[in-house]
Design a protein that fits this description.
This is Phosphohexomutase. The chain is mainly beta and 322 residues long. It has 2 domains: 212 residues, Sandwich (Jelly Rolls); 77 residues, Jelly Rolls. The protein has 7 helices and 19 strands. β16 and β17 form a beta hairpin. The mean pLDDT is 95.
Length: 322
């Protein structure tokens, strides 16, 4: 391993949202100063929102600076070959005190053409759910642009969309084009492509503190939407002290690790690995050094760190690119 690199923590980038709350502080110990904080961006290279290291001798450096200095060592040989010095993923925790807007994200081709951006394939891990909490995801039956627009104009679009009750531990994988909204009362870990392109199509006629409605992107969304029925919920095993596969797509692989003891990890250097602690606590033991983490921490393991141990008692999401 490059002696300059080690497991990296970053300062959270906190975002006020009209639908946000206080769970990021009460559940995840994030340093929020507002009662409407909706998002904690844990790991980002989105322009204007670049993560800054908070631990070790690289503290104060941005993720982009470290990638520029150590592209192969941090990203991994295969990731660097595929994406160059771009960090291809974005990691967040979200607190939805109210429903998020109904929205859709474009695919790579459309996002490149319109915004010179990646598309936005994403997944949600439900960390906590209030009673009767639900998400909106996809169409109940195969639809089309005409039916969708008619329902949108009549404010009946919810009647043609899937309304799914959720509980802690549920996972949903949303390919680009899937119409969706996180519902009120949910705390969510989100893994997605590096993109901040969202087409908002319905916002429940809400207004902000100044009485303004938020911008909608109805026309942009028309070409982006997948009008077919989609299966988004992912079932997965929960074998203790093992990497249980949840999602394996072109953009990322996510495993669930129910940790209760010690695991030896052996990587090949092709990709960085990220761990999101969604419950409990754990530590990484690397090169005879102990690194401690708790619920709400997101840690980036450089690809050059190929052998280490995980120990503790908690639930961890393990993410890399395969």
């Amino acid at each position: 391993m490059n002696s300059k690199l080690y497991p990296l923590l970053f300062n959270p980038i906190l975002k006020e949202r009209i639908w946000g709350g206080t769970k990021l502080k009460s559940s995840l110990n994030k340093p929020i100063t507002s009662d409407i904080t909706g998002e904690s961006w844990e790991l980002s290279t989105v322009e204007g929102d670049v993560s800054v290291v908070s631990n070790g001798h690289l503290a104060g450096k941005t993720l982009i600076e470290i990638i520029n200095d150590f592209p192969n060592e941090l990203l991994g040989t295969e990731v660097y070959k595929r994406f160059g010095k771009q960090f291809p993923l974005l990691f967040k925790f979200l607190d939805a005190r109210e429903d998020l807007s109904i929205q859709v994200h474009p695919n790579d081709e459309l996002a490149k053409k319109r915004h010179n951006s990646f598309g936005k394939t994403e997944m949600w891990y439900i960390m906590q759910a209030d009673e009767n909490a639900r998400i909106i995801v996809g169409f109940k039956e195969k639809s089309n642009a005409k039916e969708y627009i008619e329902n949108l104009e009549n404010k009946t679009v919810l009647s043609i969309l899937n309304d799914v009750k959720v509980k802690a531990g549920d996972v949903f994988f949303l390919e680009t084009g899937t119409v969706h909204a996180i519902g009120a009362g949910l705390l969510v870990a989100e893994i997605q492509q590096t993109s901040d392109i969202t087409y908002r199509i319905y916002d429940f006629d809400r207004v902000d503190a100044q009485g303004n409605t938020r911008e909608l992107h109805v026309d942009l969304a028309l070409e982006a939407i997948n009008y077919n029925k989609t299966e988004t919920k992912k079932e997965y095993t929960r074998i203790a002290n093992a990497s249980n596969k949840i999602v394996n797509c072109d953009y990322f692989t996510t495993n669930f690790i129910p940790l209760d003891g010690i695991i030896s990890v052996d990587k090949n250097g092709n990709s960085f690995t990220v761990y999101m602690c969604v419950d409990g606590f754990f530590e990484i033991v690397a090169n005879e050094t102990f690194y401690h983490y708790k619920k709400g921490d997101t840690v980036l393991i450089p690809a050059s760190l190929t052998e280490y141990k995980l120990s503790g008692k908690g639930s961890i999401l393990e993410i890399y690119i395969s």
